[in-house]
TrEMBL record, chain A:
<dbReference type="GO" id="GO:0000324">
    <property type="term" value="C:fungal-type vacuole"/>
</dbReference>
<feature type="transmembrane region" description="Helical">
    <location>
        <begin position="88"/>
        <end position="112"/>
    </location>
</feature>
<keyword id="KW-0406">Ion transport</keyword>
<feature type="transmembrane region" description="Helical">
    <location>
        <begin position="52"/>
        <end position="76"/>
    </location>
</feature>
<keyword id="KW-0813">Transport</keyword>
<keyword id="KW-0926">Vacuole</keyword>
<feature type="domain" description="V-ATPase proteolipid subunit C-like">
    <location>
        <begin position="91"/>
        <end position="150"/>
    </location>
</feature>
<comment type="subunit">
    <text>V-ATPase is a heteromultimeric enzyme composed of a peripheral catalytic V1 complex (components A to H) attached to an integral membrane V0 proton pore complex (components: a, c, c', c'', d, e, f and VOA1). The decameric c-ring forms the proton-conducting pore, and is composed of eight proteolipid subunits c, one subunit c' and one subunit c''.</text>
</comment>
<feature type="transmembrane region" description="Helical">
    <location>
        <begin position="6"/>
        <end position="31"/>
    </location>
</feature>
From TrEMBL, chain B:
<dbReference type="GO" id="GO:0031410">
    <property type="term" value="C:cytoplasmic vesicle"/>
</dbReference>
<dbReference type="GO" id="GO:0070072">
    <property type="term" value="P:vacuolar proton-transporting V-type ATPase complex assembly"/>
</dbReference>
<keyword id="KW-1133">Transmembrane helix</keyword>
<dbReference type="Pfam" id="PF09446">
    <property type="entry name" value="VMA21"/>
</dbReference>
<keyword id="KW-0256">Endoplasmic reticulum</keyword>
<protein>
    <recommendedName>
        <fullName>Vacuolar ATPase assembly integral membrane protein VMA21</fullName>
    </recommendedName>
</protein>
<keyword id="KW-0812">Transmembrane</keyword>
<keyword id="KW-0968">Cytoplasmic vesicle</keyword>
<feature type="transmembrane region" description="Helical">
    <location>
        <begin position="33"/>
        <end position="52"/>
    </location>
</feature>
Length: 162, 78
């Protein structure tokens, strides 16, 4: 058993891919589900469209979280002298950001759809919608924070001289 | 309306990644964690700017028809 086996970068790249893929799936779900409600609102009150696009912008931010974590992890990968410890850290960081982004996108989608439909009838729903969306967005932010903390521990990984 | 949306979409795509790489090299001297935090703060700034812009635009749209209605009624009174 060596500290830096040749298959260690597999886990590192798996973390990069998982972060981007899963957070994008969450963002796509949020965008599409909220977009259904916005299309319904647009037929009745087209002047409210700019305000009702806020769930879509927040879903985009979820994808940006996954992108930043992917770029961050990919910056720490090396072809040689890459320990299995660092590989597992990077995989964990990518999975943490990816799955929380999936959850946040799911929440933003459902909340955006129903709140935007309710906004047609009652304009005071807007502040409530923004509050609930912020709470859903913060779920993705928690995953990003944990991914950042994990990734910062990868620099103390053992070095191999070969 | 479309131009504003395009500008915001481009800003949301470009600003975080650009701020990550620029702050990593010029602000934080290679510390990647702080650079990632800077990127996330720039993305949230774009979001807050969008929310503020959409609220202001809706306020302008609702104030304008109200003022035009009052001037028309004064013409009827004459």
């Amino acid at each position: 058993m060596s500290v830096c086996p040749p298959y260690a970068p597999f886990f590192g790249f798996g973390g990069v891919a998982a972060s981007m893929i899963l957070s994008t799936v969450g963002a796509a779900f949020g965008t599409s589900k909220a977009g259904i409600g916005i299309a319904g609102l647009g037929t009745f009150r087209p002047e409210l469209i700019m305000k009702s696009l806020i769930p879509v912008v927040m879903s985009g931010i979820i994808a940006v979280y996954g992108l930043v974590v992917s770029v961050l992890i990919a910056g720490g990968l090396r072809p040689t002298d890459y320990s299995l410890y660092a590989g597992f850290i990077h995989l964990g960081a990518g999975l943490a950001c990816g799955f929380t982004g999936l959850a946040a996108g799911y929440a933003i989608g459902f909340v955006g759809d129903s709140c935007v439909r309710a906004y047609v009838h009652e304009s005071r729903v807007f502040v409530t919608m923004v509050l609930i969306l912020i709470f859903g967005e913060v779920l993705g932010l928690y995953g990003l924070i944990v991914a950042l903390i994990m990734n910062s521990r990868a620099t103390e990984a053992p070095r191999c001289t070969y | 309306v479309l131009v504003k949306l395009l500008i915001f979409s481009a800003a949301l795509a470009i600003a975080p990644v650009a701020s990550y790489f620029l702050s990593k090299d010029y602000l934080w001297e290679g510390n990647t964690t702080l650079a990632a935090i800077t990127a996330i703060m720039s993305a949230n700034t774009v979001l807050v700017a969008y929310i503020v812009m959409s609220i202001r635009e809706e306020r302008l749209a609702t104030v304008k028809p109200a003022t035009s209605h009052t001037t028309e009624e004064s013409k009827k009174d004459r």
